[in-house]
Amino acid sequence: MIIVLKENCTIEQQQALVSSIQSHGLSTNLSKGDQVTIIGVIGDKSVLDIDQLKADPRVDNVIPVTESYKLVNRKFHPEDTEFTVKNTVIGPNNLTIMAGPCAIESEEQLMTIARAVKASGATLLRGGAYKPRTSPYSFQGLEEEGLRYMKEAGEETGLATICEITSLKALETAVSYVDMLQVGARNMQNFELLKEVGKCGKPVMLKRGLAATIDEWLNAAEYIMANGNPNVCLCERGIRTYETATRNTLDLAAVLVLKEKTHLPVIVDPSHATGVRAFVKPLTKSAIAVGADGVMVEVHNRPECALSDGPQSLTCQQFDEMMQEIRPYADLVKRSLA
Ligand code: PEP
Ligand code: MN
């Protein structure tokens, strides 16, 4: 349930109302926007007298929220969320470009790619140190050694860094090396991991599960927010369908649905969505057009030698060309690029 406050409701009156709701054992979330101030109420609302609340001179309206996700719900927080990662902002005014290799393979590989993507205009460096591979015999990632390279690359280039964590142990290690954490598709409903990510104090990107509905995805994001972390963005990375021509099926309509349902920023990953290098640039343009807040793309200095996801990785030069081509698209949707 949300309580929309009257425009002339003072801060003292707001606080008094919040305290009285909390005294019934309910939790509240105060959202102050340019237009309206809203109190989101979570818990068993039967303890409240709704008619009395509607008649309260401080209250403009009381609206039920039927969705099971509350904190991520746009009804609770009508304005778009934005948050800072190191020195870059993810939100409605920017187009955030996250780029880097699928996996961190060596110090030299990561530094080469980091310098290149920085020069082309990326603001976040991606790279996996813990790789969730389909086969247990495939390269599993350099783990802590890779995280050390990530930290060095971030320090040298000034790029913010993002790494996937695949377990509680990886989370514990990664928090001291990277600026932002990624929960991958395979862990989208690993609820114990989501709870701890909620408590870790780092911004997080939650990728869509392989076959997750948008509601399941938003409930997964709610786990993170309900555990204290407001700095969450979502990443559409394609879903499993009957179509096999591309690795997954990129659901660009999900960006539009999410923009209605949630205030959280939305990133699109055309690399994992298609598995095809040639499709990355056109789908990046499409993602910008439908209102994504950024993209994550895989870039490799030598894709033909990559230990994972070479076929979908852009070369550094292709990434640079893409960055130049998307500038007018960013201008059209009034978003800043670095
Ligand atoms: C990744 O981004 O490295 C990755 C493994 O992606 P996903 O979880 O979307 O498959
Ligand atoms: Mn990959």
Would you give an account of this structure?
It is a single chain. With 338 residues, this protein is α/β, with parallel strands linked by helices. It has two domains: 2-63, Alpha-Beta Plaits (2-Layer Sandwich), CATH 3.30.70.1140; 83-332, Aldolase class I (TIM Barrel, Alpha-Beta Barrel). Helix content is 35%, strand content 18%. The protein has eleven helices and 14 strands. It has an eight-stranded parallel beta barrel with strand order 7-8-9-10-11-12-13-14, surrounded by five helices. The protein has a four-stranded antiparallel sheet with strand order 2-3-1-4. Helix 3 links the parallel strand 7 and strand 8. It is elongated, with a radius of gyration of 21 Å. The structure holds phosphoenolpyruvate and manganese (II) ion (MN). Residues 102, 128, 132, 164, 184-186, 207, 237, 272 line the site of phosphoenolpyruvate (PEP).
Residue share in β-strands: 15-25%
For the record, the count of structural domains works out to: 2
How many β-strands, per DSSP? 14
Strand sequence of the main sheet, in spatial order? 7-8-9-10-11-12-13-14
On the 0 to 100 scale, the average pLDDT is 97
Write a brief structural summary.
By secondary structure, the protein is of the alpha/beta class. 35% of the residues lie in helices and 18% in strands.
List its salient traits.
elongated; 14 strands; binds manganese (II) ion; 4-stranded antiparallel sheet; alpha/beta; TIM Barrel; 35% helix; 11 helices; Alpha-Beta Plaits; 8-stranded parallel β-barrel; 18% strand; 338 residues; binds phosphoenolpyruvate
